[in-house]
Amino acid sequence: MSLLASALAWLADPDSWSGSGGIPTRLLEHLAYSGLTLLLALAVAVPLGLWVGHTGRGSGVVVGLAGALRALPTLGLLTLFTLLLGLGLVPPVVALVLLAVPPILSGAYAGIANVSPALKDAGTAVGMTGGQVLARVELPNALPVILGGIRSAALQVVATVTVVAYINLGGLGRYLIDGLAVRDYSRMLGSVVLVAALALAVDAVLALVQRLATSPGLRQAP
Amino acid sequence: MTTAPALRRRLAVPAAGAALLLGLTACGSGEDPLAGDEGSATDAAGTVTVGSADFPESQIVAELYAGALGSAGIGTETSPGIGAREAYVGAVQDGSVDVVPDYSGNLLLFADPEATASSAEEIMAALPEALPEGLTVLAPAEAQNKDAMVVTRETADRYGLTSIADLAEVCDQLVIAGPPEFAERAYGLPGLEEKYGCVPRSFEPINDGGGPLTVQALLDGDVQVADIFTTTPAIADNDLVVLEDPENNFIAQQVLPLAAQDRLPQEAADALDELSGKLTTEDLVDLNRKVSGDEKMSPADAAQEWLSANGY
Hints:
The complex is a heterodimer.
Chain A: H1 3-12, H2 23-55, H3 59-70, H4 74-85, H5 90-113, H6 117-125, H7 130-160, H8 173-181, H9 185-213, H10 216-219
Chain B: H1 4-29, E1 48-51, H2 56-71, E2 76-79, H3 85-93, E3 99-103, H4 104-111, H5 120-130, E4 135-137, E5 147-151, H6 153-159, H7 164-170, E6 175-178, H8 189-196, E7 202-205, H9 212-220, E8 225-229, H10 233-237, E9 241-242, E10 255-260, H11 266-276, H12 281-292, H13 299-309
Parallel strand pairs in B: 1-2, 6-7, 6-8
Antiparallel strand pairs in B: 3-10, 4-10, 5-8, 5-9
């Protein structure tokens, strides 16, 4: 039996879908880790990105920081934080938040910073305060770019949450790591297919959100 | 906005990843692409080529072998880091290396997956028969590197643990950590249950092969028992207790040379037998500490120190 066929057989096996180690449980764990990571990353990166984009202060620092964070290997961070903090949910989530922050931060900053100055000036000219310009002019105009950053982060997080199975957590990565440990390549490939499908599904949902959230005035290509 | 070409590009990335994975797994199941095509290593110069697997301990022992052969006046070359067992056994068979260090139990299971021998003596009795044509093993060292159930001194004292048989009585209160394969392999949870009736409260997979994360989890008390290799320096460094295994759940893993039957000269075999007679598990722990610990000594330098201290 070819590897692909045996991977499909693993996916089709009812045993793979039942019990505490079954695919539905692992899928929910995977989504829970991903969701928690993204929420924390959004809470940190969106306000910071908006502030930097709006004020223009510290943009050099933010761009440099986002670039530097992208270079950090998540598995290395996971190992480091686990050695420092012990087993548990905190070390992998911190490592994953550091993965998710750069694209969200860059998107938020770049989205706001690249809104046409003429629009901002127009907002100020009709008597808007700085906060009103941000909320009513910059944010709606920047929303497609900001959501693009969030989509990019979500895609990376859903794919990378697999590494939490390196320590004693669940998620779809469990099949990948356990399968490798016992050279069960069909289980590994089956789980990879699941992770890829999940990542695409999440991206499709966010693409829809991005489309719906975009102001009609921005939809026409120039 | 999402245009059709952009969507296609995004779809292409996971597809390429899947293709890469297929390629990788294909490599893993095949033979070492670097092995072969080198002809017999002993031919022209009459030198013996010592290979090793791709982890530090194997490279250290290979350097010990090379040093012992050298001091017996035999020309040697080393070919370190060949790969996993499939690769280095293949390298001995095709003549690119003449001898590699191996572990008796795992070598037997590689040669004969159905083998049931578990004690050191049974394994050495079964090995010559099981090995493929043209391969032989020399005398094993006392040194062993095998999986073991390890607890902290505090846990051992609290429950009065000296062997896994003692552990069995309190197993349901304890959490065991080990590499993921421990959950499924015959020597892992299935073996503990079958041989000792030990079913732990839970099993926590940690994928670092009994490395720092596993040791840390044990020291932090996140887990009470861990599967750690017997030659890990952290056992002595942290005063951990290795539980005895009276039922031989973890089969013996003596260090021994796996050699090409026809190509290894008799004086080389004698030199390796003499070296194996001296090598203990404690020696391996010390050598591992020098190479993998803070000193970061090279396998060759660490081996040279041991050889000097042992009269070579």
